[in-house]
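Example protein
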Amino acid sequence: MNKNADKKPVPLIIAVLFVLLEGLVVAYFAAQLGFGILMGDSRSLVTAIALFALVAAAAAWVIFVAISLLKGKRWARSGALFWQLIQLAVATGSFSGQFGSQAIGWSLILPSAVVLVALFNKQTIAATMKSSDPED
């Protein structure tokens, strides 16, 4: 096998690492919600379970997107872009309001900006355009 064909470009690796880290952070929050359910900390069990299911599903999806990006799947760039846009929407809301926090806003904006730059890098686009077989 040709080593150059297997080597992933640095911007793609950066995007994968950041998206994977974001997915692990969301998984941590899902675990906290699950632990809260088990400890009886919720006022409404049905609502807590629904929120846990949504956050756990989001975590699984983001981690799956990161793995698919590493495999060079073309669709994974769209998934990663969507997740970054969601984070940016949450970040803009984090700067104002009763519970506004500059720290939360910037901690969401900075990694999203890094991932967006990495996703639109020519090397990343080229590395993810090679795979056209859906079963790949």
About this structure: The chain has one domain: 12-129. The two ends are 17 Å apart (CA to CA). Helices lie at 3-6, 10-39, 45-70, 75-94, 102-119, 122-129. Residues 10-39 form the longest helix (30 residues).
